[in-house]
Design goal:
- The structure is a single chain.
- The chain has about 400 residues and is of the alpha/beta class.
- The protein is about 35% helix and about 25% strand.
- It is globular.
């Protein structure tokens, strides 16, 4: 055990999982979070089999098993409720030894905080810059001061400061900026709604430029989302988000509207959807990136948070091998950059298909889904949920 300090920028899912991985690899992690609390805003998410397997490899078997509801089937419908695809997955994965799980996002963050150790997180500590030192790297903090470590992992999200300053200053000018996907999303959790949807099945409905999806996450709660093609930066009138979503889904099959009505107005969150053109170069020297800082992706495959967990597991494995920490970081990048880039693009294309508005194109899309052999559709779903490896 080398017990050298490792810095992590960002206390989201990826940053906290990275702290667990770094501790497993023999480092002393310190997580720097710009917010005043580690409490996660958000609703729910689907962790693919690869993400659950990553939790296992981080030593969090009990965390994974107690988090949510195994979800091993998917049902895709049109707004009238007619089935486009009814897909089933096996009860377990021979390759990964894990099932996909539908979980509460705040509960996952809370579990990761406990696993990382609450004392490793320093809040109101925004990383504003980096400085290379003889023994590693210093994170320069906004407002003054710095923290030093042997390595620094940038897990500070879509607008990552670490990403912007990780190399030579000139490099930041050539970075691809975040790309607006063309649609916005509302998310919420319907309470006391467990009887409205089947357990263990992810439900999704595709309309014209509008989608709706939901999944049971335990405790009588159902996580749901709705998307709509919209100009970037548009916002709801305060207090009218629920009415806005209900208007989008007027006439759609139940329990779509019932789930929205069962969600308190103040708990409905709206966010524009972004990704970034992928790059295979995540860092240099003692600095690298993880999660959305490295490969932000649209949520269409349910792999955003899951890929951050897979990153963390791969990071810990690479840094546990003999060699310098810098060599471990480059090994981690070689293992993760290409697979993550492929998922960024696959998720982008899935969103394009899901958000089609043309009656002709949406009609063709729906016919293709209905006609495709079930075996082909299930194989594609297996791949999206990580059943064919990491």
């Amino acid at each position: 055990m080398n017990c050298e300090r490792a810095l992590v920028a960002g206390a989201g899912i990826g940053g906290l999982a990275a702290a667990v991985a770094l501790r497993n690899a023999g480092f002393e992690p310190l997580v720097l979070e710009r917010a005043a609390t580690t409490r996660e805003a958000g609703a729910g998410l689907l962790l693919g089999a690869n993400a659950v397997a990553a939790l296992h490899s981080l030593g969090l078997h009990e965390t994974a098993s107690g988090l949510g509801v195994p979800t091993t089937a998917g049902l895709l419908r049109d707004p009238r409720g007619e089935t486009l695809a009814d897909l089933r997955l096996p009860a377990g994965s021979e390759r990964l030894g894990a099932d996909s799980m539908a979980v509460s996002r705040p509960e996952l963050v809370s579990a990761l905080v406990s696993a990382a150790g609450g004392d490793v997180v320093r809040t109101v500590r925004r990383v504003a810059g980096l400085r290379r030192t003889e023994g590693g790297v210093a994170a320069v903090l906004e407002g003054g001061g710095e923290e030093r470590g042997r390595v620094l992992i940038g897990a500070d999200g879509l607008h990552s400061t670490v990403r912007a300053v990780r190399g030579r200053p000139r490099e930041a000018r050539f970075e691809n900026p975040p790309r607006y996907a063309g649609y916005t999303a509302w998310r919420g959790v319907a309470r006391r709604a467990g009887g409205l949807v089947p357990r263990g099945v992810g439900l999704e409905t595709w309309g014209r430029g509008v989608r709706f999806g939901c999944v049971y996450i335990g405790g009588g709660r159902v996580y749901w989302f709705a998307t709509q093609n919209a100009p970037e930066g548009a916002r709801d009138v305060p207090g009218e988000s629920r009415a806005r979503v209900l208007g989008l889904l007027r006439g759609w099959h139940e329990p779509v509207q019932a789930l929205v009505r069962a969600t308190p107005e103040e708990e409905i969150r709206r966010d524009d959807i972004y990704d970034r053109d992928p790059t295979l170069r995540w860092g240099s020297g003692p600095v690298t990136l993880l999660g959305d800082a490295a490969h932000p992706m649209t949520p269409n495959l349910g792999q955003g948070a899951g890929q951050a967990l897979v990153d963390a597991a791969a990071l810990g494995g690479a840094l546990s091998r003999p060699g310098t920490p810098e060599a471990g970081l480059r090994l981690y990048e070689r293992r993760r950059a290409a697979p993550a880039a492929a998922l960024v693009l696959l998720s982008r294309y899935a969103g394009v298909a899901g958000q089609l508005e043309s009656p002709t194109l949406t009609g063709l899309r729906d016919r293709v889904f209905r006609a495709a052999p079930r075996r082909l559709k299930e194989r594609q779903l297996r791949e999206m949920l990580g059943y064919r490896g990491r």
